[in-house]
Design goal:
- With 89 residues, this protein is mainly alpha-helical.
- Helix content is 47%, strand content 4%.
- Strands 1-2 form a two-stranded antiparallel ribbon.
- It is elongated, with a radius of gyration of 18 Å.
- The relative contact order is 0.14.
Length: 89
């Protein structure tokens, strides 16, 4: 499980990105790069990190499911993900 502070920081960034999205788009359309630089750093979407919804883990993230590879494996083994089953050949 990721540190609670990392998860909280990520949520704070998500709120800031949503808050400044309209303003950022307007400044980009106008070509006002000085105005863009005055926005908070955490308001930039490139500072967001994909994290597992269950554990907050940042690495091994599977985008289609929104969870990390470890959680995916456990859920697939338990039959909690429809259409996924253990491979055997």
């Amino acid at each position: 499980m990721a540190k609670k502070s990392w998860i909280a920081r990520q949520k704070k960034r998500e709120r800031l990105v949503a808050k400044f999205a309209k303003r950022r788009a307007q400044l980009r359309a106008e070509g006002d790069y000085q105005g863009l630089q005055r926005l908070p750093r955490n308001a930039s979407p490139s500072r967001l990190r994909n994290r597992c919804q269950m554990t907050g883990r940042a690495r091994g993230y599977i985008r289609a499911y929104g969870i990390s590879r470890i959680v995916f494996r456990d859920m697939a083994r338990a039959g909690k993900i429809p259409g996924i089953r253990k491979a055997s050949w």
